[in-house]
Amino acid sequence: MNPTDTITRPGRHRRRLSLAGLVVLGLLATLAFRGLGNWLVISDPLQPSDAIVVLGGGVPHRSIEAARLYEDQWASEIWLTRPLDPDGDDPMTRLGIRRMVSADYSRQILEAMGVPAELIRSIPNPIRNTAGEVGVISDRLSAIDGKDDRKGSPQRHA
After folding, report:
1. Taking the mean position of all CA atoms in its chain, how far away is CA 109?
2. How many other C-beta atoms lie within 10 A of the C-beta of residue 72?
3. Where are the domains of the chain?
4. Left if phi > 0, otherwise alpha if psi is -120 to 50, otherwise beta: which for 5?
5. CA-closest candidate to residue 66, choices 102, 20, 31, 91
6. Is 30 left (phi over 0), alpha (psi -120 to 50) or beta?
7. With a threshold of 0.90, does the pTM exceed it?
8. Rounded CA gap, 11 and 7, in Å?
9. Residue 138: how many CB atoms within 10 A of its CB?
10. Tens digit of pLDDT for each residue in 125-156?
């Protein structure tokens, strides 16, 4: 028997066990994290609402879904948020051509899907991000309700 055989065999055995242990841990972690996503999802049933709000981005999917919800009579109007205008010092602006933003496309999609133009409202405040969208929408709803929505008025469906 070669003396090096006794040294390398236990080392190989430990490495194989370590590798097998890592593979098993990886599989368990994958299974655990896949199930974790289901715990984070909250799905409330739809309820009639004052308005359907189409947040910026997600064109055309958000607009198509908003048109479907309108058609199913979940709300009587649709609100579109407007992102901050792109940099005003670009060649298109200098030529007098207004750049299109997601709200412009959303309006066209909604009208093409049968939503009457007079029931599509553009929220005029330019918005930087989703948190800004939530604040502006909350303020508009509060103005409709005549009270601050963040201080105890009925819960809104998201």
Report:
1. 19
2. 9
3. 1-41, 52-151
4. alpha
5. 102
6. alpha
7. no
8. 7
9. 15
10. 888 899 999 999 998 888 887 754 444 444 44
